[in-house]
Recover the amino acids of this structure.
C-alpha cells in the first residue's frame, strides 16, 4: 500500500515539476535537445561525464527526467548495443523489453546480452538522490518535502544550499521550515569561512535537533574550534541532545517492552480464561497458538495473491480452528478431569505432543514463513532516533482490542455470566439450570480460539513451526500466575510489566540472561505472594 | 538458672495479660512463644476482634473470655461468625483489629497455626476433617500429643503405652472395631467421633468443638454430652451448637453471637429470656 | 499400623520380591554379557547392558519423583533439573579424567574451555578431579538447590499447580543458563568425550557391567530406603500432609519441614540417578534440563501407579522400553504414543497399572468369595 502511495506521489511530484517548468502542450515536440545529448553521454565510461549528464537531465525540466533518474538508480536504463542507444529496459523472458526513454514508445525486445545497464558508482548514486531530493523540495506534499530536506542535511554542495535557501523563503510548513533551518545551520557550521556570530546563532538554532548530522557537526566544532564561546555552546548543545536522545531511547525500550507485552498478553489471555476461570491447566495452549499460526499460513497458501488482506480471513479462521480443536479437547479429555488440575496438566500435555507431531507430519518439521502485508512493514518515524515499527504498533492495538472484546464478552453477555457462575460454583450453577457442560465447552472454546488469534499475530513476527507454541507456554503461565489467577486485569498488568522489564534488562544482560532473571524474579515473587499481584479473595479462592 | 532465662522470665512477668498496662499495648508480639502461662483468671482473651471479608464484617468488635476448666457454649444463627471466631483463635484467619491471647503471654494473632496447636489448642471442625487415606488408628497416631519433628517421626516408633492410649481413646468414642478401616470410608457420624478422638489425643488445654453432634443418634448425642462434661474441669472447652436441647443439657454459661458480636451472655435461663435473643431467633429458642 | 524399621523394609515380602527380580535380572544379563561368547545366541550385547543401565537410572529417578508426588503430593515438573545437576557433577569429574587426551591436548583445561580461550579453570571446577568430591557434589548440589527452593516455596505455602509451574520455570531457567557458554559447563554441547572412570575405560565391557551393577545397587538401596521411610510415622505424616495439609497444621505439624525433608531427599536421589546415567550414555548437555524431560518423567510414574514405589519403577522401565522399540520401528509414531499415554493414563487409569492390577485382583477375590458363598446354599 505504501509503495502504491509512493508511486502516486512520485508521479504527482514529477508532473508538478514538469507542469511548473515545462508548460507545453505536446511533450514530445518540446523535447529539448540537451536531454538526448545527455542520454548519449551516459554511454561513456567516464563517471565525470556521466555526472555532468545526470546534472543536465535533472536540470532539463523534462517531463520524464524524474523517471529517467529513478531508472538509472534501479539499473533500468540500458545501453542497447545493437543500435548504440540508451533505452529504458525491463527484463522479460530472458531478454530486455526496451522502451524509448523520452517518449515511452516500445522499441521491441532484444537479447539479454545485446543490452547492458548503465553502470553508476556510489558517488553518482548519491548525486542522483540529492538531485531527486532537490526536485522534491517543491513537491506539494509537505511530508515528501520534509523527507527531501532530511536527505539533504549535511550536504555541502553549493547548489543544494542554494536550493534550500530558495525553498526556505517560500516554505509555509513549519516542520519543513525547521528542517531546512537545521540543514542550513549545519551548512554554516561546516563552512570554514563563516564568522563566529553566524556559527553561534547556528548552534543555537540546531540545539534541539536529534539529527545525527547535527551531533556530528557539533562534535567536530567542539573539538576543532579555537573560540571558547563556540566550544562551550557546542558542548552544551551536545549535552542537551544526549539527554533528549536518552529520553527517546527509554521511550523506545518501553515501546519494545509494550510490544513484547502485547504478545505475552495475546498468548496468556486465552490461558487466563481456561486456567483462571475454569481451573484447567491447559498445556496444549501453546499448540493452539501454533494451530492459529498454521491457519494463517494455510489461508495465505489458498490466496497467494491476497497477502494484503488474507489476514482478515485468517483471524476468524484461526479463531474457529483453534476453538474447534479446543472444544474437541474439552469434550474428549478435560471433562473427565474437572477439579483435578494436576491431571488436566498431564492430559493436555499429552494432547500437545499429539498436536505437535500431527503438524510435523502434515506440514513437515521445517519452519514456514508467512508473508507480512506491506501495510504492516515500515515504521512511523517520530524523529531521527525514535520510530515505531508498524507491525509492533498494530500488535499492541490488536492485543488491546482482543483484550477489551473478551472483557466485554465476559462482563456483558449471557455466556459471560454463566461462565462466571460455573467457575464460582459448579454445583449451584447446575442447580440453577445452567447447562454447565455446554458452558464448559464454550468457555474452553473461547479460550482456545483466542489462542488461535494469538497465533495469527505471532505468525507476523516469527517463523511458523511445530515448536512455536512451546516457546510461549511457560511465559504465558508466568504471566497468568504473576498477575493473579482469575483476574484479567492482572493478566494485562503482568504481561506489560514483564514485557517492559524484559526489554529493560536485555541491553544490560543479554536476552537469555534477561529471561532467566525474569523467571527467577517470578519464582521469588510467587514465594512472597503465592496468589499473584491481584489475588482473588474469599472462600472460593481458599478451597481451590 | 542462667541470667538470660531469668531475664526472660522477668519480662514475661512484666507483660502478663492481666497487668494493668497490658491493654495499652495492642498488637504486641509474644514475649516468649511456646509457654502457656495459665496463672491469670482467664485462659482465653478476645478483645475487640474484628474480621472483615471484602467489607463484610464477619466479626465485629467481639469480646469474649474463657476461664480455665470452663465449658462454654456458643450459639447464634447461621453466619453469626462462630466458626470465624474459631478460625481467629486457631490462627486460620488473622483479625483486622483486636487482641487474642492464650493464657497470659501468647499472642495468638502473631502465631502460626502450628504454634497455636502446639501451645495447646485443639479444634474439631464444623465439617469433619480427618485424613481419609489413613486408618482410624493412624489418624489418632497423627494427632497424638508429643514431639512433632521430622527426625523424631522417622526414628521413634510408637511405644506400647501410646498404643494402649490410642486404643482406649478409640474405645471411648466407640470406634475400636473400626480401628483398621480407612477414615475416608467411615460414615459422617463416625468421622465426627474420630475427629473428637483426635482432639482428645492432642491433650489440649483448650478444646474448640464446632457442631459436634450433627449426624449423631440420640444415644450418641448423650455420650457426647457426657464426654464434653467429663473433659471440662481439667480442660477448657468451647462448644458451638445449634441444637438447643443439647446445649441445655451441658451448658453452664452460654454466649449468643449475632452479626459478629456478643448479643448476650449468661446461664441458659437468662439467655433464653433475653428479649434481644428472642428477637434474633424469632421465638425459636423460647420453645 | 506398622512402624517399619530398616530390617523389615529390607526383608519383608515385597522388598524381597523386588530386590530378587532386580538383582536376578541384572546378574543374569551381566553373566550373559561377560561369559557367553559374542557369537552365541545367548550373548547379551554391551549395548543392551548399557540400555538396561539407563533404564535403571530412569527408574531411580521415577522412584525419587514418586516419593514427592505419590507420597507428598508435590507434583514437581522440575525433577529433571536435579537429575541433570547430578549428571553434570559426575560429568565434571569425567571431564577432568580426560586430562591431556582431549583434542587440544591441554592437561589443565577441558577442550571447550581451550576453545573459548579461557586461560584457567573456573573456581567451581576445582576439586572435581577427585572422585570422592564429585560424589559429594552429586548429592549436595541438587540437595542444596532443592532445600533452598523448597524452603522458599513451602514456607510461603506455594502449593498445587502453582508449585508445579514454578518448578517448571526453575528447570527452564536452568536450561537457558546452561546453554550459555559463559557459565562454564560446555554450553550447547555440554560435557562429553569421556574416557574413563576411576581409571577404567568407559568403553570396556567390564566397566559397563560394573556401572549396571552400581545402578542396580543404587536403585535397590533407594527402594529399601523409601520403603523404610514411608513405613514410619514420618511417612504417614507426609501422606497426611498430602491429603489434608491444613488439618495437619492444626495438629501441630510444621508441614513445611516435612515437605522440605522429602523434597530434598528426593532431589538427592534424582541427582544420584543422573550421576549414574552420565557415564553410561557418555554425554550430559543442557537438553536434560528441558521441561519436556521432567514432564515425561511424570508420566512414567503415572503409568506405573503413584505411591507404591515399585509402580514408579515398573512405569519407568515399561515406558522407556516402549520408547526404545517405537523409535526404532516407527520414530514418527512415538510422540503420538506418548501423548496418547498421557491422556489415557490420566483419564482411564488414575491409579496406574498397579492400581489396575489391584482392582482386578480385588474383583477376582470378591467373585471367588461370592462363589464360596453360593456353594453351600
Ligand atoms: N473466607 C471467607 N470469605 C468470605 N466470607 C467469609 C469467609 N469466612 C466466613 N465468611 C462469612 O462470614 C460470615 C460468618 O461465617 P461463619 O462460618 O463464621 O458463620 P457461623 O456462625 O459458623 O455459621 P454456621 O452456623 O452456619 O456454621 C458468613 O456470612 C460467611 O459468609
Ligand atoms: Mg460455622
Amino acid at each position: 500500500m505504501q509503495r502504491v502511495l509512493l508511486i502516486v506521489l512520485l508521479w504527482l511530484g514529477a508532473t508538478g515539476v514538469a507542469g511548473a517548468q515545462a508548460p507545453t502542450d505536446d511533450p514530445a515536440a518540446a523535447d529539448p535537445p540537451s536531454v538526448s545529448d545527455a542520454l548519449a553521454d551516459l554511454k561513456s565510461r567516464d563517471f565525470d561525464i556521466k555526472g555532468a549528464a545526470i546534472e543536465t537531465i535533472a536540470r532539463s525540466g523534462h517531463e520524464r527526467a524524474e523517471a529517467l533518474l529513478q531508472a538509472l538508480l534501479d539499473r533500468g536504463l540500458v545501453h542497447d548495443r545493437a543500435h548504440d542507444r540508451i533505452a529504458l529496459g525491463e527484463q522479460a523472458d530472458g531478454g530486455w523489453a526496451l522502451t524509448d526513454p523520452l517518449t515511452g514508445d516500445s522499441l521491441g525486445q532484444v537479447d539479454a546480452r545485446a543490452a547492458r545497464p548503465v553502470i553508476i558508482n556510489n558517488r553518482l548514486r548519491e548525486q542522483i538522490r540529492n538531485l531527486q531530493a532537490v526536485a522534491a523540495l517543491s513537491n506539494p506534499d509537505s511530508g515528501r518535502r520534509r523527507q527531501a530536506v532530511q536527505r539533504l542535511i549535511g550536504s555541502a554542495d553549493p547548489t543544494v544550499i542554494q536550493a534550500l535557501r530558495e525553498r526556505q523563503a517560500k516554505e509555509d510548513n513549519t516542520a519543513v521550515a525547521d528542517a531546512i533551518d537545521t540543514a542550513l545551520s549545519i551548512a554554516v557550521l561546516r563552512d570554514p569561512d563563516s564568522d563566529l556570530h553566524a556559527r553561534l546563532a547556528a548552534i543555537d538554532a540546531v540545539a534541539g535537533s536529534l539529527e545525527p548530522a547535527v551531533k556530528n557537526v557539533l562534535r567536530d566544532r567542539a573539538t576543532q574550534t579555537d573560540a571558547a564561546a563556540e566550544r562551550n555552546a557546542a558542548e552544551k548543545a551536545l549535552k542537551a541532545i544526549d539527554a533528549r536522545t536518552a529520553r527517546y531511547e527509554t521511550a523506545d525500550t518501553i515501546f519494545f517492552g509494550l510490544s513484547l507485552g502485547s504478545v505475552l498478553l495475546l498468548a496468556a489471555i486465552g490461558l487466563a480464561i481456561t486456567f483462571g476461570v475454569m481451573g484447567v491447566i491447559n498445556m496444549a495452549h501453546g499448540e493452539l497458538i501454533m494451530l492459529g499460526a498454521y491457519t494463517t499460513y494455510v489461508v495465505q497458501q489458498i490466496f497467494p495473491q491476497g497477502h494484503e488482506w488474507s489476514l482478515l480471513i485468517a483471524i476468524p479462521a484461526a479463531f474457529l480452528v483453534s476453538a474447534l480443536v479446543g472444544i474437541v479437547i474439552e469434550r474428549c479429555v478435560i471433562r473427565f478431569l474437572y477439579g483435578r488440575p494436576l491431571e488436566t496438566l498431564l492430559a493436555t500435555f499429552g494432547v500437545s505432543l499429539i498436536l505437535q507431531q500431527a503438524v510435523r507430519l502434515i506440514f513437515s518439521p521445517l519452519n514456514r514463513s508467512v508473508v507480512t502485508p506491506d501495510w504492516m512493514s515500515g515504521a512511523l518515524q517520530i524523529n531521527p532516533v525514535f520510530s515505531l515499527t508498524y507491525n509492533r504498533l498494530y500488535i499492541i492495538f490488536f492485543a488491546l482490542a482482543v483484550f477489551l472484546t473478551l472483557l466485554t464478552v465476559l462482563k456483558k453477555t449471557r455466556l459471560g455470566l454463566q461462565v462466571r457462575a460455573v467457575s464460582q460454583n459448579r454445583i449451584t450453577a447446575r442447580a440453577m439450570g445452567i447447562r454447565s457442560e455446554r458452558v464448559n465447552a464454550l468457555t474452553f472454546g473461547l479460550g482456545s480460539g483466542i489462542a488461535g488469534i494469538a497465533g495469527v499475530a505471532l505468525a507476523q513476527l516469527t517463523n511458523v513451526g511445530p515448536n512455536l507454541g512451546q516457546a510461549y507456554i511457560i511465559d504465558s503461565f508466568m504471566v497468568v500466575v504473576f498477575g493473579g489467577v482469575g483476574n484479567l486485569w492482572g493478566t494485562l498488568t503482568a504481561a506489560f510489566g514483564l514485557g517492559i522489564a524484559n526489554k529493560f534488562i536485555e541491553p544490560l544482560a543479554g536476552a537469555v540472561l534477561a529471561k532467566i532473571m525474569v523467571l527467577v524474579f517470578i519464582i521469588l515473587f510467587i514465594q512472597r505472594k503465592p496468589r499473584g499481584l491481584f489475588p482473588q479473595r474469599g472462600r472460593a479462592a481458599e478451597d481451590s | 538458672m542462667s541470667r538470660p532465662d531469668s531475664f526472660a522470665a522477668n519480662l514475661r512477668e512484666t507483660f502478663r495479660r492481666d497487668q494493668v498496662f497490658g491493654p495499652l499495648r495492642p498488637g504486641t508480639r509474644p514475649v516468649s512463644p511456646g509457654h502457656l502461662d495459665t496463672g491469670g483468671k482467664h485462659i482465653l482473651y478476645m478483645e475487640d476482634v474484628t474480621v472483615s471479608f471484602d467489607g463484610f464484617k464477619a466479626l465485629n468488635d467481639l469480646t469474649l473470655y474463657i476461664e480455665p476448666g470452663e465449658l462454654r457454649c456458643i450459639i447464634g444463627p447461621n453466619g453469626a461468625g462462630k466458626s470465624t471466631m474459631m478460625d481467629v483463635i486457631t490462627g486460620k484467619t488473622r483479625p483486622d483489629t483486636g487482641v487474642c491471647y492464650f493464657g497470659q503471654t501468647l499472642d495468638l494473632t502473631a502465631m502460626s497455626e502450628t504454634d497455636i496447636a502446639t501451645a495447646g489448642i485443639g479444634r474439631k471442625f464444623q465439617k469433619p476433617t480427618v485424613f481419609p487415606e489413613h486408618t482410624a488408628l493412624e489418624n489418632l497416631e497423627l494427632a497424638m500429643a508429643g514431639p512433632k519433628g521430622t527426625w523424631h517421626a522417622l526414628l521413634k516408633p510408637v511405644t506400647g503405652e501410646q498404643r494402649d492410649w490410642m486404643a482406649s481413646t478409640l474405645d471411648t468414642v466407640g470406634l475400636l472395631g473400626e480401628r483398621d478401616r480407612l477414615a475416608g470410608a467411615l460414615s459422617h457420624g463416625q468421622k465426627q467421633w474420630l475427629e473428637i478422638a483426635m482432639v482428645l489425643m492432642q491433650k489440649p488445654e483448650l478444646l474448640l468443638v464446632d457442631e459436634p453432634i450433627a449426624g449423631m443418634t440420640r444415644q450418641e448425642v448423650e455420650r457426647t454430652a457426657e464426654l464434653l462434661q467429663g473433659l471440662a474441669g481439667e480442660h477448657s472447652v468451647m462448644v458451638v451448637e445449634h441444637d438447643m436441647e443439647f446445649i441445655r443439657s451441658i451448658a453452664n454459661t452460654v454466649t449468643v453471637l449475632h452479626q459478629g458480636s456478643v448479643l448476650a451472655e449468661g446461664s441458659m435461663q437468662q439467655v433464653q429470656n433475653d428479649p434481644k435473643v428472642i428477637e434474633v431467633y424469632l421465638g425459636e429458642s423460647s420453645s | 499400623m506398622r512402624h517399619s524399621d530398616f530390617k523389615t523394609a529390607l526383608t519383608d515380602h515385597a522388598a524381597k520380591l523386588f530386590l530378587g527380580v532386580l538383582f536376578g535380572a541384572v546378574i543374569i544379563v551381566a553373566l550373559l554379557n561377560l561369559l557367553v561368547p559374542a557369537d552365541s545366541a545367548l550373548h547379551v550385547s554391551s549395548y543392551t547392558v548399557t540400555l538396561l543401565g539407563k533404564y535403571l537410572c530412569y527408574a531411580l529417578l521415577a522412584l525419587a519423583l514418586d516419593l514427592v508426588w505419590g507420597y507428598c503430593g508435590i507434583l514437581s515438573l522440575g525433577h529433571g533439573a536435579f537429575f541433570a545437576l547430578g549428571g553434570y557433577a559426575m560429568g565434571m569429574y569425567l571431564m577432568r579424567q580426560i586430562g591431556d587426551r582431549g583434542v587440544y591436548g591441554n592437561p589443565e583445561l577441558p577442550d571447550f574451555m581451550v576453545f573459548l580461550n579461557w586461560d584457567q579453570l573456573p573456581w567451581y571446577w576445582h576439586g572435581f578431579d577427585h572422585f570422592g568430591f564429585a560424589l559429594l557434589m552429586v548429592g549436595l548440589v541438587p540437595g542444596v538447590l532443592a532445600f533452598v527452593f523448597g524452603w522458599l516455596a513451602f514456607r510461603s505455602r506455594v502449593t498445587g499447580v502453582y508449585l508445579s509451574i514454578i518448578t517448571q520455570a526453575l528447570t527452564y531457567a536452568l536450561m537457558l543458563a546452561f546453554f550459555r557458554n559463559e557459565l562454564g559447563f560446555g554450553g550447547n554441547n555440554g560435557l562429553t568425550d569421556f574416557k574413563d572412570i576411576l581409571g577404567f575405560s568407559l568403553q570396556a565391557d567390564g566397566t559397563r557391567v560394573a556401572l549396571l551393577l552400581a545402578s542396580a545397587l543404587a536403585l535397590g538401596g533407594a527402594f529399601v530406603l523409601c520403603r523404610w521411610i514411608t513405613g514410619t510415622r514420618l511417612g504417614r505424616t507426609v501422606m497426611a500432609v498430602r491429603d489434608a495439609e491444613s488439618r495437619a497444621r492444626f495438629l501441630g505439624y510444621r508441614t513445611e519441614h516435612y515437605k522440605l525433608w522429602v523434597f530434598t531427599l528426593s532431589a538427592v536421589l534424582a541427582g544420584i540417578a543422573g550421576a549414574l546415567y552420565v557415564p553410561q550414555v557418555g554425554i550430559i548437555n543442557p537438553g536434560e534440563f528441558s521441561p519436556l524431560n521432567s514432564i515425561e518423567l511424570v508420566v512414567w510414574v503415572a503409568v506405573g501407579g503413584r505411591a507404591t514405589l515399585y509402580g514408579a519403577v515398573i512405569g519407568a522401565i515399561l515406558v522407556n522400553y516402549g520408547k526404545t522399540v517405537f523409535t526404532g520401528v516407527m520414530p514418527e509414531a512415538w510422540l503420538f504414543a506418548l501423548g496418547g499415554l498421557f491422556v489415557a493414563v490420566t483419564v482411564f487409569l488414575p491409579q496406574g497399572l498397579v492400581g489396575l492390577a489391584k482392582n482386578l485382583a480385588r474383583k477376582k477375590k470378591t467373585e471367588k468369595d461370592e462363589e464360596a458363598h453360593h456353594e453351600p446354599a
